[in-house]
Predict the structure of SHOCT domain-containing protein.
Amino acid sequence: MTKFSLFTACLAPLVPAVAFADAPGGYAEGYYGHPMMWGEGYGFFGVGMMVVFWGVLIVLAVLAVRWLMERGPGRSQSTALDILKERLAKGEIDPEEYQARRKALEE
């Protein structure tokens, strides 16, 4: 199959859509389209809803990214006492220093 016949076969279903795109009896000579801001269509309500839609979509995307960043790998909610226990287990502090710091944290 040649490139031209493949191209024609793909575009043939679109020909009726092009024919119906320009409705007869347009709004003005040489004007094609729909005057959404001038009496027909959704007007300012449609524009406002579009802004609300995109605003909500952007806010949801930002919240999703923040939530994923907080739950990312390697992120744990360690308390000060947990960190102190880890330092004792690693041998960074001795048991006497652990007891003194634990008492200070629990007060």
Observations:
- The CA atoms of residues 57 and 105 lie 44 Å apart.
